[in-house]
Amino acid sequence: MSAPRARILYIDDDPGLCRLVQKDLERQGYVVEIATDGAIGIARIAQGGVDVVALDHYMPNQDGLETLARIRNLAEPPPVIYVTAMQEGRLAVAALKAGAADYVAKDVQGEFLPFLQRAIETVLDAVMLRRAKEAAEVESKRNWRLTQSIVDTIRDPLVVLEHDMTIVMASKAFLTMFGITETETHGRRVSELGQHQWDVPALRHLMEKVLPENKPIESFEIEDDFPGLGRCIFNLNARKISQPGNHAQRMLLVFEDITDRKQRERDALSLTNEISHRIKNNLQVIVGLIAYEAKWTAAPCVQGYKTMQARIGAIAQLYDLISQTSRGQTVAVDAYLREIAKTMSASLLGNMSGIEIEVEAEPLEIDPNRAVPFGLLVNELTTNAIKHAFPNGSGRIMLRVEQVGDQIEFIVSDDGVGMKDKDLVKSPEKRGSDYVAIFVRQLGGTIVPSKQAPIGTTIRIRLPLLLVPSGGAEPLAA
Questions:
Q1: Which of 68, 142, 181, 320 could anchor a disulfide with 280, C-beta 3.0 to 4.6 Å?
Q2: Looking at the predicted structure, is the pLDDT value of residue 396 above 80?
């Protein structure tokens, strides 16, 4: 479908010149209407549909300037090209001051017609640009109202920020929660609000990267005292927002009140720690009872009691660590190994023993659900080394944990008498491998064959995805 032709109204009292102008402009593809005086022209313009008016100055009853003034008073006046004689530049200037879009100096021979055509084209282009701009502004206002409506329906408080971090929009939830008005927020920085609770260097650093580097902010927590709210914890998230075809970029900053959730988590952690503390105390009572029974039992049974005491002690140390930690989700492996080593030294070796247990462990954390079989595995391998590696009653046992790729390697080594090749083939069956095999299976691990040195024994166990890096991350599943 072809574009509609522009409609030109030519107002002039010279019939011959009117016909000349009409024929020339129609050859250029325009629709041309003629009005022989200002009053007739104004009446036609009032009916609508006229895109451009070409207006002569000298006409009966009212001249071009008077007609131009009346056209300009219409509700939606079309642009006017003023037509004057060549020697009357002052009239052209007066017409431009009165609101004419352009002017053309005419002659009776019609040589001004190309200039009139160019003036019409220029004015029509300007009209198209103006209309496009007005349409874009209308669309922008509509989109802005729609955005505001969407923002106001979101329950979490949020603000929209310009590139300079000033607020251009705040949701009703934000204004209501913090007890401020839209006037108090518009044009201000987030760091300036309230009592400067949001003026946090780390937050500013992250916000400065959201727009230029398109780096969103994920779960940035701020805990502070807020007027009218008391002690609150907010989770902040930010994203860059932009509109296709529009170079302007803004930031959406959402404030999630997680005060109740964090309090429930803290209460649950406190309860977990309290329960773990009580379990530890009960296990310690059992360890004490076993130690008491060991004093009165027959000599051949003493070692069994002590082994049982060490196993229960390892579990007690786990619950002791859980009761002392603030994380609740994980257990520090290095601290856990040291506590197990200390308990075994006290229950199995005593102060007079020449056997030492040492620990080397990377700062890793273990899932509490697997900490019990892990602790029992450590206890079993260490107990085997104590019982079999040192017939002379002195030596050193090393407990080591390190990350190897996506697996964890737990190593128990000693500098004792070592194992014979035939014993190595059977895996450590001579050293209680039944229990070891059970715990390794529970942990989803494998026993890695190790080349034995002339002195000592080394047992390596790989545990896939058992541990997680230190820092409170969620434990990985095997």
A1: 320
A2: yes
